[in-house]
Amino acid sequence: MNLETLTRSSGEWLRGTGPESDIVISTRIRLARNLAAFPFTNRASAHQKGEIEAILRDRISKLDIHPKLIYVNIPGLSPLDRQLLVERQLISRELAAAEGPRGVALGPQETVSLMVNEEDHLRLQVMRSGLALDEAWQDIDKVDDLIEQRVTYAFSEEFGYLTACPTNVGTGMRASVMLHLPALVLTKQIEKVFRALQKINLAVRGLYGEGSRASGDFYQISNQVTLGKSETTILNEIREVIPQIINYERQARAVLVQGNRQALQDKVWRAFGTLRNATIMTSEETMDLLSSVRLGINLGLLEDLSIPTVNELFINTQPAHLQKLMGTELDGEERNAARARYLRTRLREIGAQPN
Amino acid sequence: MKCQYCSNPATVHLTDIVNKQKRELHLCQECAEKHQLIQQHQLNLPAILHAMIGQYVGAMSDELARLACPACGMRYMEFRAEGRLGCPHDYNVFRVGLGPLLERIHRASRHVGKVPRHRVDVGRQVELVELRQKLRRAIEAEAYEEAAQVRDLIRQKEATG
Ligand SMILES: [Zn+2]
Ligand SMILES: [Zn+2]
Q1: Burial readout B87-125 (b: 16 or more C-beta within 10 A, e: otherwise)
Q2: Going by C-beta distance under 8 Å and a sequence separation of 6 or more, which residues neighbour residue A5?
Q3: Between residues 86 and 145 of chain A, which touch chain B (CB distance below 8 Å)?
Q4: How do residues B46-101 score in pLDDT, each as one tens digit?
Q5: Are the CB atoms for A312 and A14 separated by under 8 Å?
Q6: Which of A16, A173, B13, B14 is deepest in the core (most CB within 10 A)?
Q7: Cβ atoms A300, A355 nearer than 8 A
Q8: Closest-CA residue in chain A for B13?
Q9: How confident is the model at residue B38 (pLDDT cuts 50, 70, 90)?
Q10: Nearest C-alpha neighbor of A118 from the set A105, A107, A104, A131
Q11: What is the pLDDT of residues A49-88, one digit of tens each?
């Protein structure tokens, strides 16, 4: 695998399959781990970061995981390639922007990524399409066990896995489920959902979103607490709340269809028409319009266009992906023109028509 | 309950216990956001740290201000400013200051859950971090003979750990 092949597929989390995949995009679990004998990354010298990376890189290469993980040296990547990995959620923005020796080991299906010298020495991540907390936990628990046989983690009986930031200490686990909630946004009930989740200590964050609004109506629900609750308890708390949110979203969708089908259909078709005809498209507008189109497909208002195709458009219109596809670096304005051109071409190729 | 800053109903409740004294902060969503305690629906740790420590000027702060980790050299005040710890040992060194914070963030102070099968005792972990720092200083001072000795010692300790 090399990074070029990444732009030819849309990756695990946008595969568009899995349970409840009309609303649940993906499930992700992260574990924060540190080597016992070293200062945390922010306190380590360049030399020590080099040693930490050498140790982890060696141990990762010896893991009994098939197919083998591929190790990518981050400082050796161009800024564009780093951004590409961020857009695919394979590395964090922090890892892309950090300095010094660091890297990521990737599974060929993009379900596993192991970040080295992030805020913690090791950040394990497993991603699954749809709602799959159990499967994701089984995968990551296994990888964690394999690594643990070869390194000594910083751990105390009292505080659990020791992490650079006290918000991660204990299990070191952050489990999140990404949801597409356009109807809750349209019916202005999303804030209510946020407040209810905050009360039970779950965090909500918009995907890609700058400011408080998530672009594309994607929201990530994750656990806030990592200390004093077992992994199973934390996963159960998330598992219990997701069906309720799915239910609210479905109810809101039903209300929209029953209340004013004509207006909803108009919104969906206008979004589709704009995507198919505009000559300048920002990333934000694309996300918003694709969100409406995605909702339209799920409600049967738009045919001949599939969810995986929409997902592919979501990822390929992100700045780094777009530049990779065009084979050249583009500034903001050039990107907006190229994005519109790409969308026009793709949607005409598919020959999709409003229903 | 009303917000401490305005009179709207308080929906954000933060509690911590320092010097056996319980302090509470009750705010409405708007004020909590205005004071940046919550950003994008997530708790903002450095801002909470500041707000929390801002409330306690006195004996406690003096005591905390003097704390530094013997293994990595991190001072509590640096942690306060950056919101990140320096090494695994800091959880013990800054225990007094961290306890209330962990209680605030997690509403718990003890780990429950997965335990690594392979682990070394805390004393050995601290020793290793200290040796690593010694190695770092030796390398930075270009004292390569000493560095080699320390490296051997680390290998020994790790092998017997
Ligand atoms: Zn208020
Ligand atoms: Zn330390």
Answers
A1: bbbbbbbbeebbebbbbbbbeebebbbbebeebbebebb
A2: none
A3: 119, 141, 144-145
A4: 566 566 555 543 446 677 778 899 889 999 888 887 889 999 999 999 988 888 88
A5: yes
A6: A173
A7: yes
A8: A199
A9: low
A10: A104
A11: 999 999 999 999 999 888 889 999 999 999 999 999 998 8
The CA distances from residue A318 to A36, A293, A325, in Å, are: 38, 17, 11
Helices (H), A120-230: 133-148, 182-186, 190-199
Lowest mean pLDDT among A27-31, A316-320, B126-130: B126-130
DSSP A69: P
CA–centroid distance for A293 within its chain? 20
* Torsion-angle region of A110 (φ positive above 0: left; ψ -120 to 50: alpha; else: beta): left
DSSP state, residue B56: -
The answer to whether A163 and A172 have CB atoms below 8 angstroms apart is yes
* Domain edges within chain B: 1-40, 45-106, 122-159
Q: Are A2 and A119 in contact (CB under 8 A)?
A: no
Q: Do the beta carbons of residue A218 and residue A208 sit within 8 Å? A: yes
SS3 helix, strand, coil % of chain B, rounded to 5?
A: 50, 15, 35
Q: How many H-runs (helices) and E-runs (strands) does chain A carry? A: 12, 10
Q: What is the mean pLDDT of chain B?
A: 76
Report pLDDT for A22: 86
CB contact set of A189 (below 8 Å; sequence gap of 6+): A248, A252
Cβ contacts of A154 on chain B, cutoff 8 Å: 88, 125
Using an 8 Å Cβ cutoff, are A197 and A237 in contact?
Answer: no
CB-based contact B85 A209, cutoff 8 Å: no
Contact at CB, B41 and A212, closer than 8 angstroms? yes
| Start-to-end Cα distance in chain A | 39
Domains of chain A: 249-354 (1.20.120)
Chain B CB within 8 Å of residue A153 CB: yes
Contact predicate A91/A85, CB 8 Å:
yes
Residue A225 — pLDDT band, cuts 50, 70, 90? very high
As given in the structure block, the two tokens for residue A267 are 């919104």
Q: Does residue A76 belong to the interface with chain B, where contact is any CB pair within 8 Å? A: no
Whether pTM > 0.90 for this model: the answer is no
Residue pair A296/A271 in contact (Cβ under 8 Å)? The answer is: yes
Smallest-distance ligand from the CA of B73: 2
- Tokens 């708390």 correspond to A237
